[in-house]
Amino acid sequence: MVSPQDIEKASYSALEWTEFFDEKKSIEIEEGDIFNVYVKGTTGPLFYLIHGGGYSGLTWACFAEIITKKLECQIVAPDLRGHGDTLTKDESDLSSERQIKDIQLVYQKLFADRSKPPPMILIGHSMGGALAIRACEAKLLPNVVALAVIDVVEGSAMSSLKMMHHFLKSRPQQFRSVEESIRWCVKSGTTRNLRAARISMPAQIRRVDKNDEKKGYQWRITLTRTEPFWIGWFNDLSQKFLNCTPAKILILANVDRLDKDLTIGSMQGKFQTEILDKVGHAVHEDSPEKVADIFVALVNRYKVIFNKML
């Protein structure tokens, strides 16, 4: 007979990346800098997905699972520098300049043998949204038809930096097991979708001692050490977003997150705003179906353009 404890443990067990992606590639972008990249699909428009601080490419797993059932498309979701299974010579440099260069080089290595780059939908969450905006404005990536950012706005991001230390210190610094970390992730509301937590959370932690599981797990990246880069990620972000020429979508968990510049821009129709309910900061994890539907509608709306570029 299965005990209640075994049932609970199974419900919070980790899921494998193979359930969501076709490949897990190791891409050496520069000597000693090897990026881990999750890939799915080989045809159709490309969704290039940039995760937020502390997450990994697996934060997009549920979204990738759903969008590829609704559309013929390609998914590229890298682990950024200092995150997930990516290994680099300098994991401490998380400046915008270094990271958008990483994002560019990962793309170039993956598509070096393609004579015709696919049309791209560039999506970033939180810190990844800031990086996506900066990469797009600098025109580091080809054929960007649409830029989408999830729950990152300059005004609210800059004001929340003051509370970031308190938030980070309030999190558990260690977990006894992967299951415990997933349980915390869901019960704390960090992710409200259990399936997303089961694939995303394990990639955010590492064994304290890689040879001894009993010593528990700690965070893969110490986010407090990234503080020198926080202002650089978000400063002047609203204007840079408005300056980007592709079609733009801002996906938020709360309409109150809009700052003055974006409120005016939204009223002027300079970008599409989507406000989702019953979600937290990780909007794409909490409601992957609704987020996927936003992009299905986008691709259908721009179908003629995409077809000409494919």
TrEMBL record:
<feature type="active site">
    <location>
        <position position="126"/>
    </location>
</feature>
<dbReference type="Pfam" id="PF12697">
    <property type="entry name" value="Abhydrolase_6"/>
</dbReference>
<dbReference type="InterPro" id="IPR029058">
    <property type="entry name" value="AB_hydrolase_fold"/>
</dbReference>
<dbReference type="InterPro" id="IPR016812">
    <property type="entry name" value="PPase_methylesterase_euk"/>
</dbReference>
<comment type="similarity">
    <text>Belongs to the AB hydrolase superfamily.</text>
</comment>
<protein>
    <recommendedName>
        <fullName>Protein phosphatase methylesterase 1</fullName>
        <ecNumber>3.1.1.-</ecNumber>
    </recommendedName>
</protein>
<feature type="active site">
    <location>
        <position position="281"/>
    </location>
</feature>
<keyword id="KW-0378">Hydrolase</keyword>
<keyword id="KW-0719">Serine esterase</keyword>
<feature type="active site">
    <location>
        <position position="151"/>
    </location>
</feature>
<dbReference type="InterPro" id="IPR000073">
    <property type="entry name" value="AB_hydrolase_1"/>
</dbReference>
<feature type="domain" description="AB hydrolase-1">
    <location>
        <begin position="49"/>
        <end position="293"/>
    </location>
</feature>
<comment type="function">
    <text>Demethylates proteins that have been reversibly carboxymethylated.</text>
</comment>
<dbReference type="GO" id="GO:0051723">
    <property type="term" value="F:protein methylesterase activity"/>
</dbReference>
